[in-house]
Amino acid sequence: MSDGSKLLDEMNDRSREVFRRVVEGYLATGDPVGSRTLTRTMTEKVSAATIRNVMQDLEYMGLLGSPHVSAGRVPTHTGLRMFVDGLLEVRDLDAMDREKIDATLGGSDPDIPAVLNRVGSALSGTTQVASLVLAPKHEAPVKHIEFVQLGPERALVVLVFADGHVENRVFVPAAGQTPSSMREAANFLNALAEGRTLSELRGVISAEIRKRRRELGTLAQAMVEQGLAVWQDEGETYERLIVRGRSNLLAGTEADELERIKTLFDDLERKRDIAEFLEAADEGEGVRIFIGSENKLFSLSGSSLVVSPYMNADRKIVGAVGVIGPTRLNYGRIVPIVDYTAQLVGKLIAGRGK
């Protein structure tokens, strides 16, 4: 049993109802909830003074806070966590929300990145916050690798996969590379690549370089290692992460929240960090909710992330979809939207074999 569940169990009915109504009121309006407001909605008739005493107890427990001098209270991140875990009522997916998400996957468009772009736009449009879509890694076996000199300081690495997919990446080669050293590097890689996926190939390259160091020229070795760095670091996670709907985060933002939103925007620009976080969050199925400081990447902006992984035909997690916004999210509505979108994307990926 979590600490939050234990706290909930120890509360009496009145304290639990006051806590629930404060959180629900805050999530609905964004405003602190006062004792006089609660006297009109409580199941039992109690005085404002009694409710204020309960609120003070909940504040002492670290579940509520007072943002201003006003008598109203808002939930702390700890309180929100407890509410989400123990009191949140997740609604059924709204038919209109379902239609908006379904519409993104219509047609026979073979371009999965284009489909995922539409999914991200629909997700941000439906939830009115920013959406994050982590596209699947390309895991088909590598068929051919080639390096092409584009100029004195520019080269191209071409990856051809067994399923016909082609990736081109431009990079700055180490000084002194020649067409001959590039051919040598490509021949070395192609001899290892047959039948291996890119991630499998990465695993054997370093060991093979150590074993065959004398056979491989210094320039060719540098090219192989640089090609490996390009695949691992330059752009793969960056290109795989699609962020949509940043402008939604500004809607209705109060002046004192602008700095928090600016911090979140800065975080969203560090796409690679977010992609790595989403991959780390892919442990287990289902929707996960990270609130405020629970999410180290976005802790400074005090934001919430609602995310769910999706799987391929082999039931292997290959990506994730989610939304990010202020902690005052309509969790009960957003959780089923994210869950449904993840399942739909998983079916799409499984149906196309990748």
Automatic annotation (TrEMBL):
Top-level taxon of origin: Bacteria
GO process terms (BP): negative regulation of DNA-templated transcription
InterPro entries found in the cross-reference section: GAF-like_dom_sf, HrcA, HrcA_C, WH-like_DNA-bd_sf, WH_DNA-bd_sf, WHTH_transcript_rep_HrcA_IDD
Record bears the keyword Transcription regulation: yes
UniProt KW keywords: Repressor, Stress response, Transcription, Transcription regulation
Heat-inducible transcription repressor HrcA C-terminal domain span: 115-335
GO molecular function: DNA binding
Similarity annotation: Belongs to the HrcA family.
Function per UniProt: Negative regulator of class I heat shock genes (grpE-dnaK-dnaJ and groELS operons). Prevents heat-shock induction of these operons.
Record-given protein name: Heat-inducible transcription repressor HrcA
Organism: Pacificitalea manganoxidans
Taxonomy of the source species: Bacteria, Pseudomonadati, Pseudomonadota, Alphaproteobacteria, Rhodobacterales
Gene: hrcA
